[in-house]
Amino acid sequence: MKAGLKKNKPIAYDFVLEELYPIDPIVKPMFGCHAIYVKEKIVLILRNKEAFKNDNGVWIATKHEHHESLRKDFLSMRTISLFGGADSGWQNLPAADDHFEEEVMKACKLILKGDPRIGKIPKPRRKKNAVNLKR
Length: 135
Prior knowledge:
Layout: H1 15-20, E1 26-30, E2 33-38, E3 41-47, E4 57-61, H2 67-73, E5 78-79, E6 90-94, H3 100-112
Antiparallel strand pairs: 1-2, 2-3, 3-4, 4-6, 5-6
């Protein structure tokens, strides 16, 4: 490894990328994890970190209105605790669950079919205000 260059962190649960390969997923580092995009939509985050191990697993990008129906498909799905326990748009398929891989594969199949309950178009990043140098 060259000085000054960080070693890339391996992608957790990379079997997800193999499953989503037919729709050309894009992987972007995000908060020490890896975000998975399909076109402009973020669909998943793959998380395996030392802090908040309870939240390790595959995070599903969704909306509150879809939680009830998704919980019928994913029995282990729950809110992410590191967000302070508030129910967020992000839901977790916990890595510690006995049916983790099975549920993640089911989520991938739904993504491949274009299920509208999974995925969000992120809000555009705000540009920093330019400083007006005129006096």
